[in-house]
Structure formats: C-alpha cells, structure tokens
Amino acid sequence: MGNAASRFKVYDYIVLGCGISALTAARHLAVEHSVLILDRYKQPGGNHLSHVIDGLEFDIGAICFNTSDEQFRHFPELLALCVPKHVEVKKICTNGSVGKYPFDWEMERSSLSAWAQLSCLLSLLSCRLRRGSRKDAARYAQSRIGNQLYLRAGLDLYIRRLFGVEASEIDYDFAMKRMQWLARETSLRLRLARLLNRLPMTPLRSQTVVRPPGGFGRYYETALVSLRTLGVDIVLGQAPSAIRTGTDVVAVSTSSRTYEARNIISTIPLDEASALCGLPHPDLPTVTLVSLFVALRGSWLPECSILYNFHSSGNWKRITVHSDFYPTSGVYDHHLTVEITVPPGGKIPAAGDAFAEVETHLRKLNIVRGELVLMGSSELANAYPIPERGFKQRRDAAIASLAARHVICLGRQGKFEYIPHSNIAAKEAIVTLDRVLAPRESASGTPGEGVA
C-alpha cells in the first residue's frame, strides 16, 4: 500500500515506528487527534518480520497470540484474520531430555535420588530464609527454588542465552516481572491446593491463534486500512534523520521532507531517539538477534511447535517450527527458525558457522533425523534490551530528557523495556499515553490545525 500525502501542516502527534505499540497508540489517539505514522521500514509490523524463501514462510520473533489480547480490542479485524492453533511448547533440559517449559517439576524430581532431593530442599529453605539478597536475577531465581535446583534446571544457562550475559548481571526487579511464572510455580500455597485438588478450575477465556498465511507485513496492512479510515496518515520507508524541538512544535526530518507536530510518540530504540534529538547516548545495551531459517527432510522428534534450550551446551535459545502453522513444500517435511542472541561487543557468527553448530547440537541430542538445509538468515539489531544492573537510572534519565522535548517513549525499544508479548506492549502503550498526556492536555487544551 502506498504512502499517504501529508494532509496537515502541524499534526497533533507523529508516531515513530509501526509495530504493535505504535499502531495501538495511533488508534488510541486518532479518535480526537491528527496523527501521522512515520517508519523506516517499508512494511508495517515493526520487528514482527516475515521472510518467504522458496515458498516457505519464516518469522522473526513470536507468532502466537491469545484471542483476549489487548491489540484485538483496538483492531478486531486482525483477530478475524488469525488462525486458531494448538501450540505445544517444550524445552531441552540440562540432561538432554525434553520436558515441559518453563519448569518441569516432575522431571526434575524424578531424576534425583532421595538424598539429592533432600539436598535441594535444604538449599531452597536456606535461600528462602536468606535476607538482603535482592541483588540480581540469579538471586531472585535462587530465592524461589534454591541454588541447587536453579543450576539443575538450567535457568542460569537460559538467561545467558536470552541476554548474552550472566544472570548475576541482570536486574533483580526485572527478574521479578519477567519470571512471574517462577513465583507461581513455586508458591507453596498453590502447590498444596493442587496436591489436594482444591484449586478451582478457571474457565478458559481465550484461545491461542497465529497470524494468517502471507506474512506479518500483509497481516498488519489490515490495521493500516483501519487507521486510514480514522484519518491517520502513514508514511513508510522514510527513516528520520533529525528531531528539532521548539516551544510549541517538534519537527521530524527525513531525507525527503520535514514533518511537524506538537508531540512525538517514539517507539524506535531509545538510543536512536536520543541521537536524533542531539542528546547524549544513554549507553543502554541491546541484543542482536540472529535468526537461521532451516528446512528439514526428515523427522522433528520433540513433536512441539516451540522448543527452548536449557541444555548445558548449544548457543541457540529457541526454535519455532513454522511448518506446524504454515504449509511446507513437497520437498521438505518441516521448516523452522532457530534464534541466537549476540550481546554488545559479541561477534555475530557467519550463518554457515552458526548453522553447523546448531546442527551438531541437535543431532547430538537426537532432536532431528534426516537432512537439515540452511535456507537463509537474518540479523536484527536492537531486538530487545539487556536489563543489566543499574540500567534504570540511565534509562529513566534518557526518557525524561526526551519528554522535555515533547517526545514520549513507548514500547520495548522506545522505553527500553523488556516486553515479552504484544499483548503487554499494547496495554502498556495505552497506560503510558493516558498517564502522560492527560495532564498535558488539561493544561493546554487539544488544539488541532486544519488541512493546509
């Protein structure tokens, strides 16, 4: 779909980016304001990117949603396109067996001797009673399951694969937020209720769905149609080169022209937004995500759609079997995406070398049988932030400096916030906008300038 001409001399809001946070923000604002979406990518969806290679569809990032997700409240037409699917999620345990994700109590317990189980229990009690340990993600996990089970379960290994750094370098408060599942699974009250079969059954409120065939670009085009009917202007394929702030108007320049607005909503990486405004680099590290697009003639033995790596070896962190959702060709039995994270300063591996390492690991663990073929690869910079200890002060200072220049930060990249699901991204976009904009508009009104 082509770009719309700029219809307003001065917009109320320019939204930088076109991912789910940006689209939700534009939809929320468009009811009462003039809005322009501006993004460097030529297709909508932000980092929800799809690649089609020899007729096989591969995605970067997660492809699963729930029917109750926030974005479908704003874009019900997207839900109408999605396809209901059962998604089986598993993990490779530290001993090489395949178990439940993210934690498999029965497998961990059954693999231990009576003495080892007692030792793990004593370790758990010791960590639960220890005080003054709110230090990092490792301490948080240990406080829930004890140090011995923490190491046996491979949580330290998975955190390292997720962020490229050790769990001892990750912020404690972040771990509490991101690893809520660990708090639930280790709740003594919850486990006792389950043991006694007294936990009330919760009715299913939502169903798992995946994007329709055709890729994320085509999927999110449907959202753009809805936004255009609300009067939102959309310009894709133009990267911002500078943001200049004044008393009442903010100007965003690209290689072809300059757009003006009273406020900017930024969902682009926080360091990029700071640089565009001429502000100091906030020195916030991010992960580069390397995705390998692989086809298989043969068998995928775990029989799951998503497999996480908690094993003691292997650099990859997650495999998504796209052939469970989208048609494969007659040449291959399965096709899948393998994800590898690279921290700042780390060497991005050549695709062939990374593929060879992954294939060796999968065959060693008897995960696949048959011929694996590397179809292609992708490198995504700023895939998600690394919430290292002490990052909040730098992040909050950068966000405050941008806010003083009428730039409001949203989303995983914009707020430097690890947001694991698009549902959370959409919810937090609305909460942030309502909190930030209400006092501004009550003080200044909501002026709107007519068509130039």
Q: Could you please describe the fold and organization of this structure?
A:
Helices cover 37% and strands 24% of the residues. It is an alpha/beta fold and 452 residues long. The chain folds into 3 domains: 169 residues, FAD/NAD(P)-binding domain (3-Layer(bba) Sandwich), CATH 3.50.50.60; 89 residues, no CATH class; 100 residues, Alpha-Beta Complex (Polyamine Oxidase, Chain A, domain 2), CATH 3.90.660.50. The strands form 4 sheets. Strands 1, 2, 10, 11, 12, 13 and 19 form a 7-stranded mixed sheet that branches. Strand 11 and strand 12 form a beta hairpin. Helix 12 crosses helix 14. The C terminus is likely disordered.
Note the total helix count.
16
Which segments are poorly predicted (pLDDT under 50) over 5 or more consecutive residues? 446-452
Q: What is the terminal-to-terminal distance?
A: 24 Å
Q: What class do helices, strands and sheet pairing give? A: alpha/beta
CATH fold name of the largest domain, please? FAD/NAD(P)-binding domain
Q: What can be said about this structure in brief?
A:
This protein is of the alpha/beta class. The chain folds into three domains: 11-50 and 214-285 and 388-444, FAD/NAD(P)-binding domain, CATH 3.50.50; 107-195, no CATH class; 286-385, Polyamine Oxidase, Chain A, domain 2. The protein has 16 helices and 19 strands.
Structural key phrases:
FAD/NAD(P)-binding domain, alpha/beta, 3 domains, Polyamine Oxidase, Chain A, domain 2, 452 residues
